[in-house]
Amino acid sequence: MPKDTPDLLPDAHIDAARYEEMYAASVNDPEGFWGEHGKRIDWIKPYTKVKDTSFAHDNVHVKWFEDGTLNVSANCIDRHLESRGDQTAIIFEPDDPNDEAKHITYEQLAKEVGTFANVLKECGVRKGDRVVLYLPMIPEAAYAMLACARIGAIHSIVFAGFSPDALAARVNGSGAKLVITADGAPRGGRVTELKDNVNKALLHNVLGTRCLVVKRTGDQVAWVGGRDIWYDDLAERVSSDCPPEEMNAEDPLFILYTSGSTGQPKGVVHTTGGYLVYASMTHEYTFDYKDGDVFWCTADVGWVTGHSYIVYGPLANGATTLMFEGVPTYPDAGRFWQVCEKHKVNQFYTAPTAIRALMGKGTGFVEKYDLSSLKLLGTVGEPINPEAWNWYNENVGKGTCPIVDTWWQTETGGHMMTPLPGAHTLKPGAAQKPFFGVQPLVLDPTSGEVVEGNGVEGVLVIADSWPGQMRTVYGDHDRFVQTYFSDYKGYYFSGDGCRRDADGDYWITGRVDDVINVSGHRMGTAEVESALVAHETVSEAAVVGYPHPVKGQGIYCYVTLMNDETPSDELKKTLSDWVRREIGPIAKPDVIQWAPGLPKTRSGKIMRRILRKIAENDFDSLGDTSTLADPSVVDELIENREKG
Ligand code: ATP
Ligand code: MG
């Protein structure tokens, strides 16, 4: 049953007419459009060239503002000091709700980052050197990022939940001179011994990588003399003043590995100028950020979402950005909402996986808190099923906060498709419209031909470059070309499928690998999953195809039930009939397997690649599982595999 959607924001930066006008300008005259909008950040030497890009298979290159120079940290800090030095830049909310939150002003941020930058120099870090950050969600993570940017070092953040092996691969892969970590990371009431993990990761390090340690828990740590350095020891000796390095627009800002949902993670390289223009512009327009608002993105800085929408986008805009160290369910499932109330959050941005998890705990946890400060909600990371969208809208947004469903990737630097809250009437589950400068096309997956018109479906490619686009895969430009520009020549291939509906709005149907072909009917697995999750007994579902003697591919469903439900064959039949009724006979599941847990990446995305292998009975080639949050889930699923 269709539900009402929230009204548009009345006084938003971008209304419907303005969107149309700006979008047309952005694609008809990209040089002129970005030449103008590039000025939203401060340049040391202004650019005279705007765009030099090619998606031609034999000559892929992406350059924006290439003769301009700037410093990203100066854009995020120094330029705000005169007008808003006393304004809070970062609100830090610690893991334990009884510990005090911190409010760091722009003035303080300048001193902290200046000090951190001088500490990096003391450690021998120079322009162009790589620095790995393996830190909790504490202000020092932002200081370290901005300090690298200040001196022109390239940071590569590794999510603090990753194992020593995964960390070692990324330290060696980037040839890092320094790893910055903390003694420990409190999260959800437990402490991860980060320094111990670094010790293991650096055990066989031959690069001479050193380790800078920030104090968080005060726990005892094992120390390697000559290699390890306490941050505090150096910080008290250096000045808090560090002039920003003049960087070229195309100098790298950071390397970041993708989450590994589909295979070996890729070392995505972003540069300074175009990235910052794009991150700050999308932050302002997508979230309709206004001066004085408190913005909260719940992602970890270890993901691109944290880079663009906790640190770089908001701070470039002079915003107040919230950094949360904890998890949504500690001390209980009301934590997000308690933090929203406490800090009077205006825009709240999270992932569907978090919403689904909280949905399963009931509405009591939301109702306890005053959420009247919220103006807008957002999601990112996966398609959001309408069930979760409606729950978010009704219980968190109280039906009055537009929800921006932002489709984008580590590779894209910022939002690619999203409704704008003052311009587009919402459709639950749709990414709807391209952001300025983004030219999406739908291709026929087999022929590679462009599919024109509305009411069509296929693979999603982008026809031309935008400033936030990744420039290369670190140390492997061929892999960049192979991965993104080879399957469909002349286009950037996203790896995702999409539908353009009768109104010309876009819906992401999931990864192209996740499309199944049942008796000649192509179907996105996301659709079957949405139907399953819409049933009251189901908390989460993952659907994959497997070889079927008659249909070509059969539908294999992994289903996690709500806490208080009991699995039974009868319930399987109920669910099977339910999907058949919701979507049609063609979508009736062939196999349902109860799954107490699903294999997920550390960023919470379901790894269907592994589920496919299990469904195919092919347990020997599960591939890279190093980015799994809980590998034991896989053994459980293999053990209880159902026969198709
Ligand atoms: P890898 O590329 O290593 O397999 P990954 O694709 O999960 O990992 P990310 O860059 O973190 O790495 O995720 C981007 C992907 O997440 C998109 O390609 C898309 O599949 C999915 N995604 C992100 N946001 C949305 C959204 N709003 N709607 C639908 N899907 C989304
Ligand atoms: Mg990807």
TrEMBL record:
Single GO biological process annotation from the record: acetyl-CoA biosynthetic process from acetate
Sequence positions that bind ATP: G381, E382, P383, D405, T406, W407, W408, Q409, T410, D496, R511, R522
Keyword ATP-binding: yes
Catalysed reaction, written as an equation: acetate + ATP + CoA = acetyl-CoA + AMP + diphosphate
Known cofactor(s): Mg(2+)
Post-translational events: Acetylated. Deacetylation by the SIR2-homolog deacetylase activates the enzyme.
InterPro entries according to UniProt: Ac_CoA_lig, ACAS_N, AMP-bd_C, AMP-bd_C_sf, AMP-binding_CS, AMP-dep_synth/lig_dom, ANL_N_sf
Ranges for domain Acetyl-coenzyme A synthetase N-terminal: 19-76
N6-acetyllysine modification, residue list: K605
Keyword Acetylation in annotation: yes
Enzyme Commission numbers on file: 6.2.1.1
Domain AMP-binding enzyme C-terminal as annotated: residue spans: 527-605
Domain annotation AMP-dependent synthetase/ligase: ranges: 78-464
Pfam families: ACAS_N, AMP-binding, AMP-binding_C
GO cellular component terms, A-Z: cytosol
Keywords: Acetylation, ATP-binding, Ligase, Magnesium, Metal-binding, Nucleotide-binding
Signal sequence, renumbered to the chain: none
Top-level EC class: ligase
Chain positions recorded as Mg(2+) binding sites: V533, H535, V538
MF terms (GO), sorted A to Z: acetate-CoA ligase activity; AMP binding; ATP binding; metal ion binding
Residue numbers binding CoA: R187, G188, G189, R190, T305, S519, R580
Function: Catalyzes the conversion of acetate into acetyl-CoA (AcCoA), an essential intermediate at the junction of anabolic and catabolic pathways. AcsA undergoes a two-step reaction. In the first half reaction, AcsA combines acetate with ATP to form acetyl-adenylate (AcAMP) intermediate. In the second half reaction, it can then transfer the acetyl group from AcAMP to the sulfhydryl group of CoA, forming the product AcCoA.
NCBIfam families linked: Ac_CoA_lig_AcsA, PRK00174.1
Family classification: Belongs to the ATP-dependent AMP-binding enzyme family.
UniProt-recorded name of the protein: Acetyl-coenzyme A synthetase
Taxonomic lineage from the root: Bacteria, Pseudomonadati, Pseudomonadota, Alphaproteobacteria, Rhodobacterales
